[in-house]
Design goal:
This protein is mainly α and about 270 residues long. It has 14 helices and no strands. The two termini are about 35 Å apart.
Length: about 270
Amino acid sequence: MERDQKSAAARVLIAVLAIIAAALILTPLVWMVLSSFKSSDQVTAYPPSLLFRPTLANYENLARTTSFLAYARNSLIESGGATLLGLLLGIPAAYAASVTRASWPALATLSARMAPGTLFLVPWYLAFRDFNLIGSYTALILTQGVIALPIVIWVLLPVFDAIPRSVLEAAQVDGCGVLRSLWRIGLPLARPGIVIATILSFVFSWNFFLFALVLSDHSTKPLVVAAFNFIGEGSTDWGGLMAAATLITLPPLVLAIAVQRWLVAGLTLGAVKG
């Protein structure tokens, strides 16, 4: 009886903590979406009011005054290209580091990721200027690929570590080399982890602002930079900014929902090593 009471209390505590965590996570998102249907005066009103007459004026103004579809296309090209580049380089790097038990490649990429972006901004700008690549998709994909690469390596490293060594050794006995064992064994077993790495890389690339602001021009400007146009020197169009932020949030959210089954599996993969 006492054990059942403790179990029930534990479930109630977990439910309460889950509700608090969900509230903390969802409140800013809900506030952003609601604000996108308000005028700028209503967004900045104090105290804020949950009762208001919704309007689509912010979305209409966004469609009328900006090339939103073109900016969305640019974001998809740049984020998708950077994610693909990070996966192409990061998957073999993580697998090699796991098989050889070498930690220095992962640490090297992590140190680059921990450094502030402004540290790389000037060298990247000068290099791309010399190659006449400022304002090109190539420059943006390469810079955002540098952001995606450490994410892919550090997400997949414990995933590959969780693959039983006996499976890899059996593949070697059967004549599989490193690349073939990666293709035939590593990739199928690490599929949920690859989904996680893909989503995180895409989201980080989609939302990265600094390099996109400096290295893009009007023809390659992504959504996250275009939203900056709503912030003026003397005033800010908060309604338009919230509408743009809401639309910018949709593609990563739709991607996460579409691969939810693999996402849940990837979050638990590697928790227990075989």
